[in-house]
Write a structure and sequence with these properties.
This protein has helices spanning 23-46, 51-73, 139-157; strands at 9-15, 77-83, 86-92, 98-104, 109-111, 122-126, 129-133. The strands form two sheets. Strands 1-2-3-4 form a four-stranded antiparallel beta sheet, covered by helices on one side. Strands 5-6-7 form a three-stranded antiparallel beta sheet, with helices on one face. The chain has two domains: 9-16 and 76-157, PH-domain like (Roll), CATH 2.30.29; 23-73. Strand 6 and strand 7 (129-133) form a beta hairpin. By secondary structure, it is an alpha+beta fold. The chain crosses the membrane at residues 28-46, 52-71. Keywords: Membrane, Transmembrane, Transmembrane helix. Pfam families: DUF2244.
């Protein structure tokens, strides 16, 4: 089938990392940390131990930097699109680089432990090519994606007949 002919999409999922702390929650957290540091640091400063304030500011700065890195890694997305002939995995990293991998749909095998363990990986295998997807998902979320993708692959492989025997 040529690329000019649109193929049916049998499965389409976009995987994104979960971030439990919103931007508003992040601001609240930093505000609480600053207030706590001020409550502890001000009396210590007044007692003459002024360097303590600087170190308390460093710990807040470190928390801000680490959360920013965490939010940046949260911009990673993976899109799985299953057509009649291929599974197209498009990975968009936090820097905006796009990586696309095509796996033959007919030979596609979806590997995942059931029940999942913490180290379980969702691996897509086709003609010797292996691709691990959804590393940032929880084991149960990976299993859910694996089951849905297996069902979609099974539907592609099952022939459909549109004639009647009457």
């Amino acid at each position: 089938m040529s690329d000019a002919v649109a193929q049916a999409v049998h499965f389409n999922a976009t995987l994104v990392p979960h971030r439990s702390l919103s931007r508003r929650g992040f601001r609240w957290l930093i505000g609480v940390l600053l207030a706590a540091n001020l409550l502890i640091g001000l009396p210590v400063f007044l007692l003459g131990a002024w360097p303590v304030i600087g170190f308390m500011g460093l710990d807040v700065a470190l928390v801000v930097v680490l959360f920013r890195l965490n939010y940046k890694s949260g911009r990673l997305t993976e899109t799985l699109k299953l057509t009649d002939s291929a599974l197209i995995v498009t990975r968009l990293d936090p820097e905006g680089l796009v990586e696309e991998t095509r796996l033959d749909a007919y030979w596609l095998r979806v590997d995942m432990d059931d029940p999942p363990e913490h180290e379980s990986r969702l691996t897509l295998i086709s003609r010797g090519n292996r691709l691990v997807v959804g590393r940032f998902l929880t084991p149960d979320e990976r299993l859910e994606v694996a089951k849905a993708l297996r069902a979609a692959v099974a539907r592609i492989r099952t022939p459909t007949y549109d004639h009647r025997w009457e």
